[in-house]
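Replying to the earlier thread about multi-chain prediction with a worked example.

Input:
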Amino acid sequence: MKQIAENPVYKFFLFPIGQIIVFSLGASLVLSLITVLLAYIFKFNVTDFDLVERTLLILPQVVINGLTIGFVYSTIALGYTMVYGVLEFINFSHSEIFMVGGIVGIQLMAYFEHIGVLSTMNEYLVIGLAIILAMAISGGLAVTVERVAYKPLRGAPRLVPLISAIGMSFFLQDFVRLILSLTTGEFNVILPKFGTFDEFWVIAIPAMANPLRIQIKSAIMVGVTIFMLVLLNFLVNGTKVGKAIRAVAQDRSSASLMGINVNQIISITFLIGGALGGAAGVLFALKATKLDPFSGFFPGLKAFTAAVLGGIGNLTGALLGGLVLGLLEAFSASYLGIFTNGAFGAEYKDIFAFAILIAVLIFRPSGLLGETVGQKA
Amino acid sequence: MNKRLFALLSLLVVASMALAACGAPAATEAPAEAPAATEAPAMTEAPASSGGESMGTIKIATQSPLSGGQSLLGVAIKNGAELALEQLGGDLRGMGYDVQLAPYDDQATPDVGVANAKNIVADPDILCGVGHLNSGVMIPSSEEYHTANLAFVSPANTNPVVTTRGYAEVNRVVGRDDVQAPAAESFAFNTLGAKSVYIIHDKTAYGQGVAEFFRGAAEADGLTVVAFEGTEETANFDAIVTPLVAAQPDVVFFAGIYNQAGVFFKQARDAGFEGTFMGTDGMDASDLADIAGDALTTGGGMYYTTVAGPASAYPAAAQFASDFEAKFGAPPEPFAAQAYDSMHVCLLAIQAAAEAAGGMPTRQQVAEAVRQVTLDGLTGSIAFDDIGDLPTAQYFILKVNAATKDDWGKNEIVDILEVASPGMGE
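Result:
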């Protein structure tokens, strides 16, 4: 058994993928069961149609929607949680790093369209190039932000870099707005039309009237994020750099005594977190089809919440937290209106999702999987 | 460490949300002249002398979103007013006044609008104003104008509350949502033959107001409302769209602004909704076609009602359209012609008040003069009733024939209604 656990294929490939599958299926199953149970309870409330039937009709689609956005939240949440792991403050400018990634990705596609090669290029190549460029620029931006706004405050009380992060967030929003108005003159950045990923795979489910419809871009979003999560797992747990990151997270001064270049490791952490955020930005842009300089704020806030929900500082926790939050949102937005017969609609989805979040944090104050690096404070 | 840090963090999250709502501070030029004097300065040193002598400066303010997602329409308002001031300000200039435009950016945000309004009323040279685009911004901002007796003419605000407060200073040159939304509903029910409708709004004073009027009319007609939702979401509508597609309504009515609606329409169409989209005048921007693409022309297509018809609906506006394009390099977006007319009203009122007062008029005199103005504007004949509404306003129903921005002009008018203002009543 121990031999299997030490086998690198298992450790760095099978185990994390298994974990992701278990988390997605587990969270979906638990929420689905609760929803169906609630459907039976609320059945008397709705007279126009059979509530249980209506619930089951859209259930698979709701799960898919929730998982799709959940994986995006997870990828952004990893950026928050990694920085918290090593520096113990919340890098609020991460939501803007994410937004910059999305805008850079769209602008690259718009550039391809401008020079007339977009329609002839392989669409997956275009997306791949956009993701790589966005990762490079977002990663570089994150490192720059760290150098400019956080490094000079390294010894200061923890709230000081936090304020600096919030300031940086506003600065980046308006800076991007300025650049966009100087270059394109447009406030909305709109994804050009190309490729076939707007189409759906229609999967008929036996005993279900509605077939399941999975949009190809949702599949791309999920596939790319899973790939990156596995890669990150390998980077953190299987390489020397990863070991150094973990050492710095556990005890910065001891790590430096052991010959680890702490400043360099912190920069690398920001680079990785920023690159993940940039990639998530491009994937989000595929779905949203339109971004503006303020688009990062709410997804960033949700992802931060997801990181706290899973246990901030805990990489696995960020993954689980993102999935749970995405599913919670999708379930509450889709079902609130149906269950309450229109008294509460999708507009209250955030209240509902966050109320559950508060309930979880009351019973598990350090998040679903617990905080891993809080002990020394 | 946990409790304290988390308490602080949660506070900070709340604070950052609040900060984000405020956005950037009012980035417009704040006129820094003696703010105490709300009444116009009495510059009456023997005014009856020759026309060449300067009689002082008169400023006319505009307030509309010049930056942000709705700036396309907001800039159109500013430019329309600017063109009117340039072409029609000659009479006042001939009387010796230096007439200037004072544009303000309300960022489509109530807080910014009110902050600008305070700056506007503090500038004694401003005697009249044109704005806003958003009813949700106009309503709180006009409280400031009302207190300072400053006349404002709205080129775009359709929420009934704008005028039903009965303020003597607040006027508009367009119709009202309590006529517009029922007109849309009647079109859906009678012309399209819809049996069920899904209503969604953007949780603003404008969107929710329109949605409520639509729902009221639908319930009166026996049109089934399958859901009534509000959302601030701008990117990922999956969770809302899934139950929508399952409910299979004939019509989806979106009460809001194009930059949010476009994404929603695209995602709903992608997810398999085959019915008809409808909306009100917030949809009337060419960017909608860029964002939503062929979601607007496939399936049941898309219709919208508006109080500001396309250029072809206003024969008198042909010259305006070519002048506008020559000056600003783009054809006028909706509400530009209305802004032109609003500015025209301001200029005529100031002129009449100045002639009556024999010198620089007070704000109160201008506000009274606005209600007396009658003119044949670009968008039809303009006069105001006792609450500042047009006695009879035009309402248009348009069918979208555009899947790209450049085709927006191909939208065709399906119907034009002339409806009397409901006045103060419900």
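Chain B is about 40% helix and 20% strand.

Feel free to reuse this layout for your own posts.
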